[in-house]
Structure formats: C-alpha cells, structure tokens
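Subject: sequence -> structure tokens, single chain

Hey, anyone have a minute? Need the predicted structure for the following. Not urgent.
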Amino acid sequence: MQTTQTATPSAILDPVCGMAVDPATARHAEREGETFYFCSEQCRQKFLTTPAEANPVGKSGASGG
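Reply:
Had a minute. Here:
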C-alpha cells in the first residue's frame, strides 16, 4: 500500500526529500534563476553541495511551476 502526502494549495515539495513545505516559512535557495524551498537546513545544504546536473530536481520543487 502506497501512502501519499496531501499538500495544501500553498505548499510545494522539497526537491531533496519530497516533503511538502510552506514557502512562507521554509528555508530556500536559488539555482539558475529559480527559487527552491526546503524542509530543513540539512536538505538545503545537500541541494547546494550537489552539482545541478546531478540533482534530479523537477519543477514541482521550484517557484513558478
């Protein structure tokens, strides 16, 4: 049985762990002109230390869709 998280309309997904986060309170970072939001500083640091081409980030984790 698969469990899914229900995100609120204002929530987006952390590109590292996939957790739903609220962009109003989440940590964030920019890459290539896009803003990404994170559940924790640990996920943010992992994202920042991983080369962009090795980080499988989808648009769901970025602002603007």
